[in-house]
Specification:
The chain is mainly alpha-helical. About 75% of the residues lie in helices and about 5% in strands. A 3-stranded antiparallel beta sheet has the order 1-2-3, with helices on one face. Strand 1 and strand 2 form a beta hairpin.
Length: about 550
């Protein structure tokens, strides 16, 4: 085309001079800015035309808006806005004071150095969440004032642009000033909407941090803490599962780009393909667009994706989480519900107001004061506490509360120990127990060997009256004839005793048989008597039938004669 007639400056600035769009162009954006005076809102509208390698042109419209003055609204809305903002700032300041006080106490009680105390006594996941929330809150405040500064700059540039619009005419100088003012206004609006978008990103991150702080608060109630404890228990399995999941997912994403990238906008780039595949896992897809590459190809990729990602991997993820949830649910089976815990808090508060109860914080402070504020030394003390000791140390503490406090503390300690016992700990305990049993068995075998030796030793000693000893050594001091007669006498006596025992057993067995025969004979006699009765009854019935037949026969003959 005629470059001299082109009104844009980009064509003339290129070396060599050429049109601003060619075969290497990937994206063209047309931007314009509007201002709505009724709402006091700037709007930047960008129309993007993206050229892919397949020759398709995809369009995307981006709209970014920003208030020229967020405080220019009705009084009732403004009051709510200011009160909520002020309350939020007060809460953030209060959290900062509490965390700073806790950190100061850690440094004050540090005996082995501040950094060691900070590492051992303070640095933890939930404390880091608290400080991150404070940091994000500070960033939000900074981003808000940065956005307000950009909005004020845009308002100033718009006022200057309106002045230049009034002056513009046929003069070249006025037109150049107008173009310069327009460029400044566009740059100011770009900066403003960018600051507003960054501010919204900060607002987006803050509720996520607050959600984590809510989980920290849920830990105070066992049934509310099931979710966090489930995730903690399943962390290791989830990490290993995510490695497999991401490898398979990314491979299928690459396949989707190769299949649909040239024809479907949602798969034209890697970020778009990742988002589209993730949405497809949860049932949000457009199969009609996928069929642009062919029905068979689209079906093959879609079936593979659904079978692997949805039917297998997602169900495995649920199985991992539900397994951990089942264990945590079993641990909290006897835990208090939220309603019961709320009622207990109210009941304790009423008792405290009536002077019938001492707060746990007051009891804790008494012990801390006894140890000079050193909580580590207090917790390491292995001294056994009694209810009488508590009532002496803590003012106004009743013996019933002291006893109940010690019992509940012991139960909570035992439950905490049981909660820490996992399957690996149980297996380790079983192995240690088996090793101890094996060692004990070896010791018992050694002791049995020793006892066997001692028994054999005592068995070889002379013990008159023992049959075995008398058989082998009882003939000492006697003749062979006397020893033989005595041995035969003992043998005959033993044999006679055995024969008598067998005879008695056989007689008892015969008596049992006779009793059984008698029972059977009695049963047989009763059966024969019953049969005789039945035969008499049958004979009586036959006689009755014969008599009835004889009576019917003359009557029939009379009828025939008539």
């Amino acid at each position: 085309g005629d470059l001299a007639s082109c009104r844009c400056q980009s064509c003339k600035a290129q070396v060599p001079r050429q049109p601003w769009i060619d075969e290497l162009t990937r994206k063209v954006e047309v931007t314009f800015i509007t201002y709505n005076p009724h709402y006091g809102m700037y709007t930047r509208v960008g129309t993007n035309f993206m050229f892919n390698r397949g020759g398709h042109i995809h369009k995307l419209i981006s709209v970014l808006s920003c208030w020229s003055n967020p405080f220019d609204r009705p009084l009732d809305e403004l009051v709510v806005l200011l009160l909520s903002g002020g309350l939020w700032i007060l809460c953030a300041v209060y959290s900062f004071i509490c965390e700073s006080r806790e950190l100061f106490n850690v440094f004050r009680k540090a005996n082995d150095g501040c950094f060691k105390a900070l590492k051992e006594d303070y640095i933890g996941f939930w404390n880091m969440v608290d400080w991150i929330s404070l940091g994000v809150a500070l960033c939000i405040v900074i981003l808000f004032f940065s956005m307000r500064s950009a909005v004020e700059a845009s308002n100033v540039e718009m006022a200057a642009l309106l002045v230049e619009v009034a002056k513009v005419g046929t003069s070249t100088e006025n037109r150049e000033m107008y173009q310069a003012a327009t460029q400044k206004f566009f740059a100011a609006v770009e900066n403003m909407v960018s600051a507003e978008r960054t501010f919204r990103l900060g607002l987006f991150a803050y509720p996520s941090i607050i959600m984590l702080r809510l989980f920290k608060s849920f830990a105070a109630q066992p049934r509310l803490a099931i979710v966090t404890k489930t995730l903690q228990r399943a962390t290791v399995d989830l990490i290993h599962f995510c490695i497999v999941f991401m490898c398979v997912f990314l491979c299928l994403v690459v396949n989707s780009i190769l299949f649909f990238g040239q024809d479907v906008q949602d798969f034209s780039t890697f970020p778009r393909a990742v988002n589209s595949c993730f949405r497809a896992m949860f049932g949000d897809w457009n199969f009609d667009e996928m069929m642009e590459i062919g029905l068979i190809k689209a079906q093959i990729w879609f079936w593979i994706f659904m079978l692997i990602m949805v039917l297998i991997l997602l169900n495995m993820l649920l199985a991992v989480i539900m397994d951990a949830y089942k264990e945590e649910k079993a641990r909290t089976k006897t835990a208090q519900t939220l309603a019961n815990q709320t009622y207990d808090i109210y009941r304790r508060w009423r008792q405290f107001k009536r002077g019938e109860r001492v707060r746990l914080n007051d009891i804790w402070d008494v012990f801390c004061e006894e140890y000079g504020g050193d909580e580590k030394a207090m917790l390491k003390d292995q001294r056994m506490l009694k209810a009488s000791y508590l009532t002496e140390k803590v003012p106004k503490l009743q013996p019933t509360q002291a006893k109940r406090l010690l019992e509940n503390s012991l139960a909570a300690y035992e439950n905490a120990i049981d909660a820490e016992i996992t399957e690996s700990h149980q297996l380790k305990g079983i192995k240690e127990g088996a090793a101890k049993v094996e060692l004990r068995i070896e010791q018992m075998l050694e002791e049995m060997k020793y006892l066997t030796g001692r028994v054999q030793y005592y068995d070889r000693l002379q013990a008159y009256g023992d049959p075995e000893y008398d058989f082998h050594f009882g003939s000492e001091g006697r003749s062979v004839t006397e020893a033989s007669q005595e041995a035969i006498s003992h043998a005959v006596t033993g044999l006679s005793s055995e024969i008598c025992g067998l005879f008695v057993d056989n007689l008892k067995r015969i008596e049992g048989w006779q009793d059984a025969f008698e029972r059977q004979q009695n049963e047989l006699h009763s059966l024969v008597a019953e049969m005789q009765i039945m035969v008499r009854q049958q004979a009586w019935c036959v006689a009755a039938m014969a008599e009835a037949v004889e009576q019917l026969t003359p009557e029939e003959q009379n009828h025939e004669g008539e």
